[in-house]
Amino acid sequence: MSEPISFANPSVLEFYRALPFNIRDSVEGSVEVIHQTDHAASYPPLRALVRPGLRVLDVGCGTGWFSNSLAHHHGALATGLDFNPVAIDRARAVAAAMNLPTEFIVGDLFRYEPAEPFDLVVSLGVLHHTNDCAAAVRRVCQRLVKPGGHALIGLYHAYGRKPLLEHFQAMKARGATEFEMMERYRQLHSQLKDETMLASWFRDQVMHPHETQHTLEEMVPILTQSGMALVSTSINRFRPIESLAALFEAEKGFYAVGAQRLKENQYFTGFFVFLARKSGGASIEESTADPRGTDDPPLDRAAYLQHDPIVGYRYIPGTSLELPRPGGGRYHIQVNSQGIRSDREFSVERPSGVRRLIVCGDSMAAGQFVSNTHRFSELLERRIPALEVINLALEGSGTDQQLLLYERVGLRYEHDAVVLLPFLQNIRRNMVEAREGIDPRTGQHVLRAKPRFELLAGQLVLRNVPVPEEVIGRAVSDRDGTDTRSSLLLRLKTRLSALPGAALVKKGLYAMVPWEPFPEYARPTSPEWQLMSALVRRIRELAGDRPVVVAPTFYSSYVRFRMARNYWKRYAELAATPGIHPVDLLPHFRREGVDGPRCFQEPYDMHFSAYGNLVLADALEAELGRLGLLPLS
Question: How far is CA 162 from the centre of its chain?
Answer without folding.
Answer: 33
